[in-house]
Write a structure and sequence with these properties.
With 317 residues, the chain is of the alpha/beta class. The protein folds into 2 domains: 3-136 and 282-315, Medium-chain alcohol dehydrogenases, catalytic domain (Quinone Oxidoreductase, Chain A, domain 1), CATH 3.90.180; 142-264, Rossmann fold (3-Layer(aba) Sandwich). Helices cover 25% and strands 29% of the residues. The protein contains 10 helices and 18 strands. It has helices at residues 37-43, 86-89, 131-134, 137-149, 165-175, 188-193, 222-231, 253-257, 270-280, 297-305; strands at residues 3-6, 10-13, 25-35, 51-52, 56-64, 73-76, 79-80, 100-101, 114-118, 122-124, 157-161, 180-185, 200-203, 212-217, 232-240, 261-264, 288-293, 311-315. The strands form 4 sheets. Strands 3, 5, 6, 9, 10, 17 and 18 form a 7-stranded mixed beta sheet that branches. Helix 10 links the parallel strand 17 (288-293) and strand 18. Helix 4 (137-149) crosses helix 5 (165-175) and helix 4 crosses helix 9. The longest helix has 13 residues, at 137-149. The structure holds zinc ion (2 copies). Residues 81-82, 84-85, 87-88, 96, 98 line the site of one zinc ion.
Length: 317
């Protein structure tokens, strides 16, 4: 089948092996998928991954032992757990040490005509939700993971640093719980896109002196993390949404002095993500920068790398 793969370089192939149907799994014909920052990192060789790329998709179940699933339009959680370790038994499959991750760890991804996932990972997409909305389920759920981890009150002052896709979606998720959300970024166009649900946006954060109860770091830079620390009130919560790969020193003393709680936050539950999207009708279509066919996968990656880009979509079938 056709697939966009990484094997030291990103390339398009017509000869990728079809996924095999395993017991308890489903094979999904991929409709639309999204290019994520993680995919760009994989394409740089950062994560040691080899295989078909991509983890954000919406598609239709083509093969499954349970015939009820066949023909259903679905999105899929990306962690495939062993089902049998202590973490899995506690319902924390996303932390299973033996897990594979779609398009990220030892598991062929969705930038292909088909991909495979355990049935328990699948969520049916509500009828009224277009593919171009449903494909945002993974990053929207990642935004709501913060609300699974931290209690956010209406009056809590929240600041999100970073006006990329994830920063914008995090600000929208917070705006469903708090009436005081500010997004700080460096791209006027992206800050305009973020205007929803009372979210205020501003260029940079240097001018902010009124510190926040909750600060979200979504810039992916060490300087962003230092700024997030500065903006967090004593006894506040600092939520880290981006994996910061850097070895430069950071002064952690303010964490201790101000008794700040640091929360690392990654993928979220898709059930909630879909429900929140259906309820709040986030204008995710504003985040779409460009659309490509799978045959133009390399161009899609080039476009996604440009600084002004938000979400680039790839049509796989
Ligand atoms: Zn993603
Ligand atoms: Zn496990």
């Amino acid at each position: 089948m056709r697939a966009l793969v990484f094997d030291g370089a990103v390339r398009l192939t017509e000869e990728w092996a079809e996924p095999q149907l395993m017991p308890g799994w489903a094979v999904v014909r991929v409709g639309l998928c999204g290019v994520c920052r993680t995919d760009l990192e994989i394409a740089q060789g950062y994560m040691g991954y080899r295989g078909a790329m991509g983890h954000e998709f919406v598609g239709v179940v083509e093969q499954c032992e349970d015939a009820d699933w066949i023909g259903k339009r679905v999105v899929g959680e990306i962690n495939a757990a062993c089902g049998d370790c202590d973490w899995c038994r506690r319902g924390l499959q996303r932390h299973c040490p033996g897990r594979t991750v779609l398009g990220i760890v030892s598991h062929d991804g969705c930038m292909a005509e088909r991909c495979a996932l355990p049935v328990e990972n699948l969520h049916e997409v509500p009828e009224g939700m277009a593919d171009e909305q449903a494909v945002f389920c993974e990053p929207v759920s990642a935004g709501f993971e913060m609300l699974e981890q931290v209690d956010v009150a209406r009056k809590d002052r929240c600041i999100v640093l970073g006006d990329g896709k994830l920063g914008i979606l995090c600000s929208w998720a917070l705006a469903t719980a708090s009436s005081d959300v500010t997004l700080c970024g460096h791209h006027p166009h992206k800050l305009t896109v973020a205007d929803w649900g009372g979210v205020r946006s501003q260029m940079g954060s240097d001018s902010i002196t009124d510190c926040a109860d909750i600060v979200v770091e979504a810039t992916g830079s060490v300087s962003g993390l230092a700024e997030a620390l500065r903006l967090c009130k004593p006894r506040g919560v600092l939520i880290l949404k981006s994996t910061i790969a850097a070895d430069s020193a950071l002064n952690l003393a303010p964490l201790v002095v101000n008794e700040i709680t640091v929360v690392g936050s990654r993928c979220g539950p898709f059930g909630r993500g879909l429900r929140e999207m259906a309820t709040h009708r986030f204008p995710v279509e504003r985040l779409i920068t460009a659309r490509y066919d799978l045959s133009q996968g390399l161009q899609a990656f080039q476009r996604a790398r440009q600084r002004d880009a938000l979400k680039v979509l790839v049509r796989c079938s």
